[in-house]
């Protein structure tokens, strides 16, 4: 897998933060060999726009507090249907369930290597 250890650690933190806010279908894929502009995509979904925003806030807070990371770019925050956080080496996609089903990013990247993510509250290494 081409994803560096610091990125894996950040994805694990994001996974736990998303799970803390009851995100659904949490997953991540290694896109480094296919894209060249980022190492990984992180996906999660939620039932409401409010929950999408809550998940994004929790992820941002956790990454800032634990790794002192801030997103380079944030898109979609106002609508709360599909929010993207670009951290450079990885990109977080939190989508409303309808957008997740409609755009099917999981299917688009189904041939990319999956990244193992911890379950909620699993200790970080």
Description:
The chain has 125 residues and is α+β, with helices and mostly antiparallel strands. 40% of the residues lie in helices and 23% in strands. It has five helices and five strands; from the N terminus they run αβαβαβββαα. It has helices at residues 5-20, 32-35, 49-67, 97-103, 105-108; strands at 24-30, 40-46, 73-75, 82-86, 90-96. It has a five-stranded mixed sheet with strand order 1-2-5-4-3. α1 (5-20) crosses α3 (49-67). Mean pLDDT is 92; it is low at 121-125.
Give a quick set of tags describing it:
single chain, 125 residues, alpha+beta, Beta Polymerase, domain 2, five-stranded mixed sheet
What is the H level of CATH, i.e. the homologous superfamily?
Beta Polymerase, domain 2
Q: What is the residue-averaged pLDDT?
A: 92
Number of strands: 5
**Residues in β-strands, percent:** 15-25%
Number of helical elements: 5
What fraction, in percent, of the residue positions are helical?
Answer: 40-55%
Can you tell me the number of structural domains?
Answer: 1
Q: Rg from C-alpha positions?
A: 13 Å
State the end-to-end distance: 18 Å
Strand order of the largest sheet: 1-2-5-4-3
> Would you give the CATH topology?
Beta Polymerase, domain 2
| Major sheet | 5 strands, mixed
User: Which CATH architecture would you pick?
Assistant: 2-Layer Sandwich
Described by the principal axes of the CA atoms, the overall outline is globular
What is the CATH level 1 assignment?
A: Alpha Beta
Q: Poorly predicted ranges (pLDDT <50, ≥5 residues)? A: 121-125
Pfam families: RsfS
Subcellular location: Cytoplasm
Family: Belongs to the Iojap/RsfS family.
Organism: Enteractinococcus fodinae
